[in-house]
Amino acid sequence: MSSATAQPGFGLFRYAAPPAFYPLAGKLVPWFAGIAAVLTAWGLYLGFLVAPSDAQQGEVYRVIFIHVPAAWMAMFLYIVMAFWAGVGLVFNTRLSSMMAQAVAPTGALMAFLALWTGAFWGRPTWGAYWVWDARLTSTLLLLFLYLGFMALQAAIDDPRRADRAGAVLALVGAINVPVIYFSVKWWNTLHQGASIRPGGASMATPMLTAMLVMVFAFWAYAIAVILMRVRAIMLERDRDAAWVQDALGREGGRA
Amino acid sequence: MNWASFGDFLAMGGAGFFVWMSYGACALVVIAEVWAVRRRRARAAAALRRRA
Fold first, then answer.
1. pLDDT at residue A198 greater than cutoff 50
2. What is the pLDDT along chain B (52 residues), one digit of tens a residue?
3. How do the domains of chain A map onto residue ranges?
4. What residue ranges do the domains of chain B occupy?
5. Which of B1, B30, B48 sits opposite A245 (nearest CB)?
6. DSSP string across chain A
7. Does B18 contact A120 at a Cβ distance shorter than 8 Å?
8. Is B15 within 8 Å of A58 when comparing Cβ atoms?
């Protein structure tokens, strides 16, 4: 990768180089963090004050407003992580691998939250915090895939070798994502089927609106925190590069 | 409006424990993750400034 200013004709590719991406990411973080905060406030208002009680489940269904966004983000972020890891593997682009590395912890936390909130929703509705059901088990495997990716990368000293090993794990594990998604169709499970499918949603409108607002809030949050993390990773991994000192100098005293 | 009082809101129709354990964990995760990421970058920047 040559200097970022050498290719004025390729506006987008310019940002594929850490020296250009680092300040760009820094500018984007407050915007996505702000969007996440506004959407969370709006989504919680809709979810707790506007959406009515559920006819069958009463109030406990309100866990859905964080359970579904967390579960969707856990699956979606895995695809994003595998995509960036794969791009880094094929094209040998360092920033792609750094992105994959930055996505993994947030994906793992989302998988954890999906399982945790699911447990506290399952206890009052199914009578158990945990069952070895296809949907739950495949989501637990997703959490372990994230943790395995992080552990593997941490265990290998040479960063580029760690990237390649992690990419293979991430790509092989990607097969689990469609398994999670279709698990409620393929197996008999306790977990309810999809409420939102192509062609319509089987949910009352205020509940659906609240859930979708929370989904976008989680999206914005994930983007903000992943951009923050990729900036830290860039500083750690490019510590010997000249651009890092330039970038820090331009930021002044701010940490 | 769904709730007659703040206590009613906290009780969540008897499901308060399950609802607030879920939302509480979510809030903790967000706070902890943002704190950890900020600290990670601050540490990386501090290490670089020492070398400069």
1. yes
2. 689 999 999 999 999 999 999 999 999 999 999 999 999 999 999 998 887 6
3. 27-194+203-251
4. 20-52
5. B48
6. ---GGG-TT-HHHHTTSHHHHHHHHHHHHHHHHHHHHHHHHHHHHIIIIISPPBTTTBTGGGGHHHHHHHHHHHHHHHHHHHHHHHHHHHH--HHHHHHHHHHHHHHHHHHHHHHHHHHHHHHHHHS-S----HHHHHHHHHHHHHHHHHHHHHH-SSHHHHHHHHHHHHHHHTTHHHHHHHHHHHS--SS---SEETTEE-S-HHHHHHHHHHHHHHHHHHHHHHHHHHHHHHHHHTTTSHHHHHHHHHHTT--
7. yes
8. yes
Check CB contact under 8 Å for A239 and B41.
Answer: no
How sure is the predictor about A32, in pLDDT bands with cuts at 50, 70 and 90?
very high
Token reading at A178 = 């469609």
ipTM of the complex: 0.94
Please name the member of B3, B9, B23 whose beta carbon is closest to the beta carbon of A66: B23
| Chain A hits for B37, Cβ within 8 Å | 225, 228-229, 232
